[in-house]
Structures are given as C-alpha cells and as structure tokens.
Design the sequence.
C-alpha cells in the first residue's frame, strides 16, 4: 500500500536544543538525569550538549560537567554540537565518551546566513572549508552536509529546491577539496516553512540529483505541520529524523520568541509505531521522560502526547 | 501528482467547543466578539453555541444571549448543538438566525457510549429514533449521521472500520424508519486514536460500502497527529472538516483533563492553502481571531501558528 520504511532512526536532540533555550537555570544534575533517562528508552542517538560560548549560550556553560557526569549506556551514540575550533577542542576532550563527527553546515537562504551567522554565503563556505580541514586534521570524520532553511526562510521567503541543490553542491565541493567522505545530507526546516508538498518536491529533486545519498530531516513544528511533514517523508522512505522529547526547544534566533521547537520525539515515535515502523523506542518510557522534562523546565511543553498518554497504555487498560 | 481537492469546507466549532470547556467565566460580549470576528475571516460555517443544560455546561448558560446578540453576516451558516427536546426547542426560537439541522449521533464504541451517555448502544439507537422523529416533526431536516470514536476509544481500545460500518448501518436504519434523507457521514476521532493509516483504512472501507456518500471528518489533536490525519484525508479527497480556532476545546469527558482539543483551524487552513486547496478563508485574519481568543481565555492555546504567524506575512515582509 505504501513505501513505508521498516525501521526509522531517531536522533534525540532534546537536551541540546532544549537546555540552550530554556530560561532556566536548569541544574547540571537535571540535565544528566534527562540524558540518562533518554538512554533507557531505547534511543540509539542522543545529542547531549553544545560546546558553545557560555556568554552567548549560558544554558550550556556546564557542558563539560554534564558530559563528564552522565553514565553512558552501551549501544547509545552520544553526540555534541560545536561551531568553531574552541568548541571542537572542548568536545575532543570527551573523545572516548562522545561520538565526535563533523558537519558541513550551510544555509539555503543567504538572508538567514547573514542574520544568523553575520556573514555572506561565500564567507560561510570559506569558514566551512577551514572547519572541515580542521576536523580532518584532528581525525574527526565529516560525514554530513546540513542545509538550514531548506524549505523556506522568515527573512527570504520561499526557498526553491534548486537553491537547496546549489547549497548541497557547495557542500560537496568543500568535502571534495578537503577529502571528506559525505555519507548523508540533513535538510532542516529551521523556521517551519515545510509542507508535505514541499517535502515531496524538495526530497524528490535532491534524490533525482543524488539518487544514492541518504537524506535525514530536521523538522521544526513552528506552524504545526511538522508531523504531517514527517509522515510525507516516511512515505518517501526517509529513515532518519532529528527530534526533541516533549518538543523541547524553539527558534529564538528567527524573530519568533513564542514559536514552537522541533518535532516532538514522542509524537514521531507514535506515528511510526502505529504505522508498523520500528523505532526501537519504548514510547511509554519516553513519555515519562517528556513528563520529567516538563517538570524540570517548569512549564507545559508542546507535546500533546505527553499529556494524553500512549494508545498502548489505553489499550492495556481497556483489555484489563 | 495527488488527488487533492480544489476546495475544502471548514466548519468552525471554536465558540461552541471552546467556551463549553474553558473554566472562564467568559463574558457574553466576548463570545459575540469571537463569533463576529470569525465571520469576517471568510468562514462559511460557524457553530455558535450549545443549547445544553446550564447545570452540566455552565459555560453555555448564556446561549440565548449570545445568539440574540451577534450580528449575522450574509453568506455565513451559523449552527448550534443540542442533545434533547429541550435543547431543540431553545434552538428553534432562533430559526431565522441559525441554520437548524439535526444529526443522528452514534458512537462506534459501546464502552464510550456507556461512559459518555450512560446508556447502551441499543438504548442510544432507540433515543436517536425518537430524536430523529422529533426533528422531522418540527420540520428540521436530519442530513447527518455522526459516529464518535470512529478510530479508537480510550475505554475500548482500537475500533475497526467494520464497527464504524455497523454503526453507520444503524444510523441509516434510523433515518430510513423516520424518513430522513442522509446527505453525509461525519466520522469523529473523539479521543485522538486516528493515524494517517487508520484514516486511509477507515475512509476506504466506508467508501467501498457507500461509494456516493460524502464523508466529513471531526479530528482531535489529542496525541499530536491531527494535521497528519487531515493531510491523509485531503489526499483521499475529503472536503469537509470541523476544526476550532486556536485549537480551542479539549476532551474533558474522556479522562484526559490536559488533553488537546480539536484540530486547529489556522493550521488546517495553512496546510490547505499552501497545497493549493482553496478554503475561502483569510489566514492572517483568522490568526488574529486566534490571538483574540487566547487573550479572552487567558492562557496559551495549542495553535503553534498563532504564535509564529503565517508564511504569507513573512513573504510580504521578505519582499518589502
């Protein structure tokens, strides 16, 4: 009936996305508690922190303490985010605990590059060349090209698939020059411009150009369409998604202080599991982590499912 | 590429669903303000109130004042809800202002019928026979069979399409006996059990049985999947949806006090318009009503779009 994949790989970014944005302060112990609880749900990829300037992102001033503090679970890949040499060096200290890989991070919207990074696309390409070389010098593989604003931009408007393809070509040129082996593209709907139709077209055109490249999606629920977009992507056979427990996160840098964050992990898992797609995740355990996160941040999170409970929980009650 | 319809008819139920559930108190004047503002957005169907027992639903004790108070806009159908002879009589007073039609309201889950109406399905069928006769005696057409819990039930678990079909057969038998001409079926995902796959199967099986009957959907966002379900339905050519501005409403009767309400009108309109499906609705005007409703109820509503703003608003800014 459909081309639904058998298994989907979910990369949990709740700790990193959420704790950087929440006004907090959130204690190091609470961050560790969430990371450890997430690992117990069956998630295989957890982004644990951001090695960024504590001046710009005070919520991650304790990144070292968090990474040093959590007890890793076997079989789980813990990742981190950084944007420069200083961040990379901080991450490399934890080489034995974190899965350290680099990314060529570009943006399909020049206006957003300017607003977000205060540089032109050309300057960003130069910066990424240097960063990619730096990664490889440090024996850090760079398997990923990430494209932000891949479906539209609050500052530029619609973003055509051709602009995404041009951006990916720039990324591949950077990789080729540096000798990095790209394993997948990650398309980000940074400001919530995607619709199922734009997902179909965007992924369709990228696939036509690079039929064998794996595509991952990073969806935001800024305008409430993330789960419909994920469903459209699942039907196209997309098998890797970033998401955040409880819908932690947000988009404070895009001029929308109240805007929702990433697609909610629980709802993505519900969608997958109810459609027969395995995620390896225990949804009820994950919902409990969402509830824990809600208590920790001290306000209601966007996840509806966290408030309603899973279907399986009600099935068990009904059968009892 | 798809079977998307050209036009979709959206029945706004925010006033009725929202104001019955909000702890309030919400003033009669504010209710009228929302109803009048909704009519200015291009919505053609607005459910204005519920004629129910003020003891059970204190939020609608002022139903008469609200209906008497709003100035109707030409071309807009204003409807109301009632459950018994007393409610019908109250509605009939406003025959010249409201569009008064009846419904045969059944439930695909016996457990929910028992919990919600405190009677068995058989007793509910008897009650609906009497109510249908009463409607027709009062020259009130009964064009609709509504099926609650059509995709699953918190008290019973999964609901198979065969149970929906059996329920619809009961409804058609009631209609035939009374001489009511049924124009459409309305399938309600009362407790948020639908998934895109269950939408496809449920609608598919009902359509196989009654190929010429129009099907409308009443979706709840209890577990965050409503917009994905709406998208699946649009692809099947479903052209009529109930929804609520801001996502007003909830499901207090189903044991989920924190659960989300109906699918949000703004997000449904965004999905439709961005996919080239006409709704006749001015999305930016509707978002303003969502913001007004949020101020009136005094808390954040589930709509993400109300907080983020429409894509067209950002397109205009980007182009300026």
Sequence:
């Amino acid at each position: 009936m459909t081309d639904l994949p058998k298994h989907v790989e979910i990369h949990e970014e709740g700790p990193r996305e959420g704790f950087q944005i929440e006004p907090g302060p959130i204690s190091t112990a609470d961050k560790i508690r969430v990371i450890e609880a997430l690992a117990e749900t069956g998630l295989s990829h957890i982004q644990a922190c951001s090695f960024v300037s504590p001046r710009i992102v005070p919520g991650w001033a304790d990144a070292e303490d968090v990474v040093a503090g959590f007890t890793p679970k076997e079989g789980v890949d813990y990742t981190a985010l950084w944007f420069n040499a200083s961040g990379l060096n901080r991450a490399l200290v934890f080489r034995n605990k974190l899965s350290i890989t680099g990314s060529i991070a570009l943006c399909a919207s020049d206006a957003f590059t300017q607003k977000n990074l205060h540089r032109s696309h050309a300057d960003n390409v130069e910066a990424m060349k240097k960063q990619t070389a730096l990664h490889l010098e440090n024996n850090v593989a760079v398997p990923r090209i990430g494209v932000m604003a891949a479906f539209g931009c609050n500052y530029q408007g619609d973003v055509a698939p051709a602009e995404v393809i041009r951006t990916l070509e720039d990324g591949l040129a950077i990789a080729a020059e540096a000798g990095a082996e790209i394993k997948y593209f990650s398309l980000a709907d940074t400001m919530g411009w995607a619709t199922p139709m734009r997902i179909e077209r965007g992924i369709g055109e990228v696939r036509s150009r690079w039929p064998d490249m794996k595509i991952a999606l990073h969806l935001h629920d800024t305008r409430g369409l993330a789960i419909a977009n994920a469903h459209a992507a699942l039907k196209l056979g997309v098998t890797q998604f970033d998401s955040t427990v409880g819908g932690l996160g947000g988009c404070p840098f895009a001029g929308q202080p109240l805007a929702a964050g990433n697609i909610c992990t629980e709802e993505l898992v519900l969608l997958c599991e109810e459609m027969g797609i395995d995620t390896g995740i225990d949804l009820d355990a994950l919902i409990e982590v969402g509830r824990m996160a809600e208590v920790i941040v001290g306000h209601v999170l966007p996840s509806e499912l966290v408030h309603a409970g899973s279907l399986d929980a009600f099935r068990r009650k009904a059968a009892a």
